[in-house]
Structures are given as structure tokens and as C-alpha cells.
From TrEMBL:
Protein name: GPN-loop GTPase
Ranges that cross the membrane: none
Keyword Iron-sulfur appears in the UniProt entry: no
Natural source organism: Effrenium voratum
Cellular compartment(s): Cytoplasm; Nucleus
Record-listed E.C. numbers: 3.6.5.-
Domain of life: Eukaryota
Protein family per UniProt: Belongs to the GPN-loop GTPase family.
CDD domains in the cross-refs: GPN1
Gene Ontology, cellular component aspect: cytoplasm; nucleus
Pfam family, one: ATP_bind_1
Length: 334
């Protein structure tokens, strides 16, 4: 990699946190449904591979139909979300969340797979479902983020549909989501204002730099949400100040160079700021992670009681959940 020197975990100190390697850099692609996460993942895979970077991909969206990029670990190989709908009597949204929760309880298997490949990789790109609440309050988001971040430099790429943000209320609600994910994960963050081939993102930059401008735009709307957003806009200033944001187009590739630069800076921030934070908070974080896994398992037990299939069958299914790597084309790793 250009920005980071590879350094195997075992080479530095005995403290596992001090010996977090500088690569592979993990990029969690997060954003609302339709913002362009998967298309942007594809764009990055192609770009990074053409730069001879070694890229590994993980898909965490159980309901996605087609993905254009090669996938190395795919939640769909482990959890059938339509079966989850039937088992737990859920609708599509609930089934996606539950599938991810099931997968998260076995996330140590993903870490084992990644651990086998880590030394030969520069990037691990992770696609996630548009159910953004996974990263706001669901246990699975916490388990996934925390497990990755104690092992690899981990960054969040928050993808925003620029064209939809012409509505200031949509912009504000996107930013409030982003803010809550940033404060929850505390991970280095890059906002990718996507679809700039449709509309340039300059107006969003202006809104972020001058809260009065977004206030003006919001004052043209009279809904309850608009007045709530208006009162939040000043409070968001502090959040914007510490934010890296880049305009990109997943379709044309515009802005991707700037994005890659921002990603390098975010990975450096992980080393400079997040690792010391981790070392300070380690006990607390580990307890929280354990607690999240236990709560998740408990909630499955309760759901099992209500589920349509027999409890024994469901318990057996859960024990058998096994996460496998897809057959690896080493050439595709560059
Ligand atoms: N014009 C334009 N369209 C884009 C761009 N990126 C994505 N799209 C389109 O936006 C739609 C949604 O893109 P996806 O990549 O499926 O979005 P996603 O965030 O993965 O969606 P979910 O899986 O529902 O969460 C598709 O029709 C894409 O072709 C872009 O940069 N420009």
C-alpha cells in the first residue's frame, strides 16, 4: 500500500492492541438504502485492484440480489433471510436485522478467515445492508465494529445520496444518522457524497460550513421535522468540524482519488487516535462486546419460544451456522 506499511501483528509488542497491524485497512460501507454502497464498493474494488492493491470483500447484506464485485465472504452463504422470515415470523426488514444478528454471534469465524488472509491484503471492504439502524443501536453492528477494530485499522465510509439531499430535511436526517454512528463507533469516518454525476455536492459543503445556510433552507419548510432539524443545525456544527467528506460518483469514478486519500488519512487517524483510546477503554469495550453477544443470544432464545418452528430445531440450526470463505481466486487479490 502507498499510505501504510504492512507490519505483521506478531512483530511488535506482546500487547495485542499495540500490535494492531497498519494494514489491511478495513472499510465498512454504511449508508441508507439506495445511497450507492454496493456500486461504490464495486468502483473501489476495480480501482484498487488496478493499482495492484490486494482487496478482500465481505458482503453483510443478506437480502441483496446481485453484486457486481467478486465476494470472498458472503452472509448469504450462511443465513437464508427468507428462512429467517419464516422461522421468526418476521417481515423483510426484521429478517435482515435478525439475519445479521445471527451472523454477528458467529463473527469470530469471519475474524479467523480474515486472520488467515490478512498478511496478503491491503484492504478489506465490507458491504452492509441499507438498514442503517444496524450501526445505530443493534447489537450486531457493535459486535462487528468492535471485533474488527481491535484487530485491524477500521474506518467507516458513510455513503450519502447527494441528489436526495437537495431536500434539507433529508440532508439533516442523513447527518444525524452519521453523527450517531460516529459517536457510537468512535471510529475514523469519511463521508462519501455519492452521485455527483447527477448533482455536484458543493451545496452540501456550504450547508456544513455555515449552519445559517442550512437553517435558511430549512426555514422554507414548515413541517415539524424541519423545525426540529433547524434547532439541531447549530449543534451539528461541532460534528461537521471533525468530519472528512468527499464528493464521489460510483458510476463515473469522479472524486475517487480524493476518497482514497481521505481513507489513508482516516487509517492514520485510527493509529494515532483510536488505538490509544482502545488501550484506555479496553476493559470497558471488551465487557460491552461480551454483553452484546450475550444479549443477542438471550433475545434469540426468547424469539425461539415465539418462533413457528420447534425450539430444538432452531437451536440446532444456530449451532450449525458456519461461515465459509468462497473459493478464492488468488489472482483476484492482485
Ligand atoms: N447516477 C448515479 N447512480 C448511482 C451512483 N451510485 C449508485 N447509483 C445507482 O443507485 C442505485 C442504488 O445503488 P446501490 O449500489 O444498489 O445502493 P446500495 O446503497 O447498495 O443499496 P441497498 O443495497 O438498498 O442498501 C442503483 O440504481 C445504482 O446504479 C452514482 O454515483 N451515480
Amino acid at each position: 500500500m502507498d499510505t501504510m506499511d504492512s507490519e505483521p501483528a506478531s512483530s511488535s509488542s506482546a500487547d495485542p492492541l499495540q500490535s494492531i497491524p497498519k494494514s489491511p485497512v478495513v472499510v465498512l460501507m454504511v449508508g441508507m438504502a439506495g445511497s450507492g454502497k454496493s456500486t461504490f464498493m464495486h468502483r473501489l474494488v476495480v480501482r484498487l485492484q488496478s493499482q495492484k492493491k490486494r482487496v478482500y470483500t465481505v458482503n453483510l447484506d443478506p437480502a441483496v440480489r446481485n453484486l457486481a464485485y467478486p465476494i470472498n465472504v458472503d452472509i448469504r452463504d450462511t443465513v437464508n433471510y427468507k428462512e429467517v422470515m419464516k422461522h421468526f415470523g418476521l417481515g423483510p426488514n426484521g429478517a435482515i436485522m435478525t439475519s445479521l444478528n445471527l451472523f454477528a454471534t458467529k463473527f469470530d469465524q469471519v475474524l479467523t478467515i480474515l486472520g488467515r488472509r490478512a498478511e496478503m491484503l491491503d484492504y478489506i471492504l465490507i458491504d452492509t445492508p441499507g438498514q442503517i439502524e444496524v450501526f445505530n443501536w443493534s447489537a450486531s453492528g457493535q459486535i462487528i465494529c468492535d471485533s474488527l477494530a481491535v484487530t485491524y485499522p477500521t474506518t467507516v465510509c458513510y455513503v450519502v445520496d447527494t441528489a436526495r439531499c437537495v431536500k434539507p430535511v433529508t440532508f439533516m436526517s442523513n447527518m444525524l444518522y452519521a453523527c450517531s454512528i460516529l459517536y457510537k463507533t468512535k471510529l475514523p469516518f469519511v463521508i462519501a457524497f455519492n452521485k455527483i454525476d447527477v448533482i455536484p455536492h458543493d451545496f452540501l459543503k456550504e450547508w456544513m460550513e455555515d449552519f445559517e445556510k442550512v437553517g435558511d433552507a430549512l426555514s422554507r419548510e414548515s413541517s415539524y421535522v424541519a423545525s426540529l432539524a433547524r434547532s439541531m443545525s447549530l449543534a451539528m456544527e461541532e460534528f461537521y468540524k471533525n468530519l472528512r467528506s468527499v464528493g464521489v460518483s460510483a458510476v463515473t469514478g469522479a472524486g475517487c482519488e480524493d476518497f482514497e486519500k481521505a481513507l489513508g488519512e482516516a487509517a492514520q487517524e485510527f493509529v494515532d487516535s483510536y488505538v490509544p483510546f482502545l488501550m484506555e477503554q479496553r476493559k470497558d469495550l471488551e465487557e460491552k462486546r461480551q454483553q452484546a453477544v450475550e444479549e443477542q443470544l438471550k433475545s434469540f432464545e426468547q424469539n425461539m419460544d415465539r418462533a413457528k418452528r420447534g425450539r430444538d430445531q432452531l437451536e440446532e440450526d444456530m449451532q450449525n451456522l458456519s461461515i465459509e470463505e468462497r473459493e478464492l481466486d488468488l489472482m483476484s487479490l492482485g
